[in-house]
User: Fold these one by one.
Assistant:
Number 1:
Amino acid sequence: EVQLVESGGDLVQPGGSLRLSCAASGFTFDDYTMTWVRQAPGKGLEWVSALNWNGGTIYYAESMKGRFTISRDNPKNTVYLQMNSLKPEDTAVYHCNYGNYWGQGTQVTVSS
């Protein structure tokens, strides 16, 4: 059974930082591209970032470039999202994704 479990979300002030983690199981993690997406209150899913099996190819949505860093640790079956210079508009539930599988998400709230 494929499982994706996100963690690390929290309430943070504007300008702060968080690191999200997504622990994966039930599939051969280091064979696949992993993706982060987010959903802000009352809005649809927004693609955030993705990296390929070895982290050699990375993509970011334009608004995240320079602030967010995606990475993975294949021996730990975990993908990370380091988020710096957070803004109120980054408030959302953040999900990791592989194929048709999604985690339950972790809440990030950016507010003073």
Number 2:
Amino acid sequence: VQFVESGGGLVQPGGSLRLSCVASGFAFSMYTMRWYRQATGEEREWVATINGRGVTYYADSVKGRFTISRDNAKNTVYLQMNSLKSEDTALYYCNINPVPPWGQGTQVTVSS
């Protein structure tokens, strides 16, 4: 099982980013996928979930601003992040569940 996240960067408050995560080593379309994030000095936290049928769930802190989606043909899950805030600054990861293995993550920094 492997996850490769990308799409992070430095963005001003109110800006947008789209993260991607390519998964391999398992039957992607059959699994619920999740995004997590970890800010410096904080514990990793759940951000969003999408199941195999496309049903989505969000943490209250990102609801209405972030959108999770997936492309099963590409074994890829996405996280569209709009109206970014400084508190969204973190290393973002995708996974099936919050257990190893983890990818390298992609850094999102929201700062003016």
